[in-house]
Amino acid sequence: MRSLALWCVVSGSSLLALGCGGAPKSADDGAVASIDMAEIAIDSSTRAGDLPPAPVDLGVAPGPDLVSVDLASADLAIGDGPEVDGAPPDVDLSVDVDLAMAADLALGPDLTMPADLAKLPPGDLSGPLSCRDGVKNNTESDQDCGGMECAPCEYMKVCVRAADCYSGACGNGRCVHPSSCLNAMQDGNESDVDCGGPDCSPCAAGKACAANGDCASQACARLVCVSAPPSFKAAVAVPLGAAPHAPAIADLDGDGRLDVVVTATTTNAMLVLLGKGDGTFAAPVSYAAGALPQYLVLRDFNGDRKLDAAIASRGDGNIDILLGNGDGTFQAAKFIFTGSANFGIAAGDLDNDGRLDLVTTPKESGGMNAYLGNGDGTFRHSVEIVRGGYTGIALGDVDGDGKLDAVAAVEFPASFGLYLGKGDGTFMAEALYPSGGTVAWGVLAADLDGDGFIDLAATNRGASSVGVLRNAGFGALLAVATMAARRSPTA
Fold first, then answer.
1. Residue 207 to residue 95: CA distance in whole angstroms
2. DSSP code for 102
3. Which of 328, 438, 332, 428 is nearest to 391 (CA)?
4. In the chain, pLDDT over 70 holds for what percent of residues?
């Protein structure tokens, strides 16, 4: 075998150039590597930055006349260049070559990379050098994978498009499983990421849910799966002697025990049941109200730190105000004539003056009325919005601008009617959102999922369901989610 010393510049274990200079070398110079027809190995004694002296003019042009490499068969042949005087016969070529890395180098016109080696699976060392350099570069979507040159990426690697992933599925910037229940995304009918809904496995505790069936525990509380369903003792019936409607719960007498207030539509009264603290109540006490009292709200309307009651009366077009005495009793009702068949009622500070105001929904005539509070338990009319078919009403800052908004339940078509507040007791135009059922009735505005944003919920009386609109932030309401309820829910 003809002996020749061929110097090459190396960096660590990576070949940077081949055929950069030739010079005679002796066997004990330390940087001599043997050439094997099946494997060309890098001599670890060659250090980064080891540069040869000025090349010796061998009298021939470097290139295929000196050394040629067949990348497809891994053969190496010595050309017909002249012998180098003084080279010992036992010295092989000191060529520092990794065949796979050499495939990506510009080795001259006769040393080109076969086209079928351009992009191969991980572990195959015939791809471009940039796909094995431990750096995210060129068009790679993650380190040494994806993009136009490299093999597709494995599970959970960064991706830009589906072609960057072996699975063919890129979700939320990561290579994911192609199945909708294993792709690390909330999609389809899932209530949370890869769980819940009719297609995927039930969710674990702490995951989002829309119904009990979404949870492994079969317990969905406040739209979150809990570890076990809540349990209750057997129900205790409390005779009222009237048709109760729209219960409200609060501590009326300051004893730390919750009390219950309901309207009685058949006796035109408000009934108060003081709690004993053990789940039972004292006998109901009746207070006269307007004709056909409907929904009620308990708040301090005159600033004396005692809870008062405001009732929407449907039969005589009044709002009934009963000021509380702080001991569980109430003064006689004072009536605010509205001329409308009031149905729903809610309280809040609509104009940011520190005084509680009222909004009502007159069911028959339709629309919504706002009444600004004077701070002493009296009110003045502010605005009337004419729109048929409203039932329940609620207040909350849905868009997070510090101004209360109003949301009403619309019977037909069953939907949420959202009015963004202007902060002066008036509102912007209505925006409708489907409630997911038929005959929407009661409505709630509250943070149902604990994310700090006001969500909306409505009872669908005609469909025996509850529809929920989750707020993604600052009034961006997501698609309605529904859950089954008892027959014809109202409140």
1. 60
2. H
3. 438
4. 72
Q: Identify whether the C-beta of residue 32 lies closer than 8 Å to the C-beta of residue 8.
A: no
* Number of Cβ atoms within 10 Å of the Cβ of 53: 8
pTM of the model: 0.56
Distance of CA 490 to CAs 391, 440, 462, 469, Å? Answer: 10, 8, 10, 18
Strand partners, 379: 373
Q: Specify whether the backbone of 436 is left (phi greater than 0), alpha (psi in -120 to 50) or beta.
A: left
Q: Which residues contact 234 (CB under 8 A, 6 or more apart)?
A: none
Rounded CA-CA distance 173/146 in Å is 12
Q: Which residue is it, tokens 């509102």?
A: 427
Find, among 346, 272, 271, 341, the residue nearest to 313 by Cα.
341
**Which pLDDT tens digit goes with each residue over 339-375?**
888 899 999 999 999 999 999 998 666 678 999 999 9
Q: Which residues contact residue 261 at a Cβ distance below 8 angstroms, ignoring those fewer than 6 apart?
A: 247, 248, 249, 250, 252, 270, 271, 272, 273, 296, 298, 309
Q: How far apart are CA 318 and CA 131, in angstroms?
A: 78
Amino acid at 146: G
Nearest to 460 by CA among 362, 387, 391: 391
Pick from 459, 456, 417: nearest CA to 442: 459
CA neighbor of 270 nearest in space, from 309, 238, 305, 300: 309
DSSP 153: B
What is the enclosing helix (H) or strand (E) of 68?
strand 67-70
Interacting residues of 133 by C-beta distance below 8 A, sequence separation 6+: 14, 144
Ordered DSSP codes for 277-337: SSS-BPPPEEEE--SSEEEEEEE-SSSSSS-EEEEEESSSSEEEEE-B-SSS-BPPPEEEE
User: Is-contact 238 281, C-beta < 8 A?
Assistant: yes
> Which class for 486: exposed (0-12), middle (13-18), buried (19 or more C-beta within 10 A)?
exposed
Which pair of structure tokens corresponds to residue 237?
Answer: 């019936």
Q: How many CB atoms lie within 10 A of CB 227?
A: 12
CA distance 12 to 17: 13
Residue whose token pair is 């501590």: 251
Whether 191 and 214 have beta carbons less than 8 Å apart is answered as yes
Residue 379, number of CB atoms within 10 A of its CB: 22
Q: How do residues 333-344 score in pLDDT, each as one tens digit? A: 999 988 888 899
Tell me the residue ranges of DSSP E strands in 314-424. 318-322, 334-337, 342-348, 357-362, 368-373, 379-385, 390-396, 405-410, 415-419
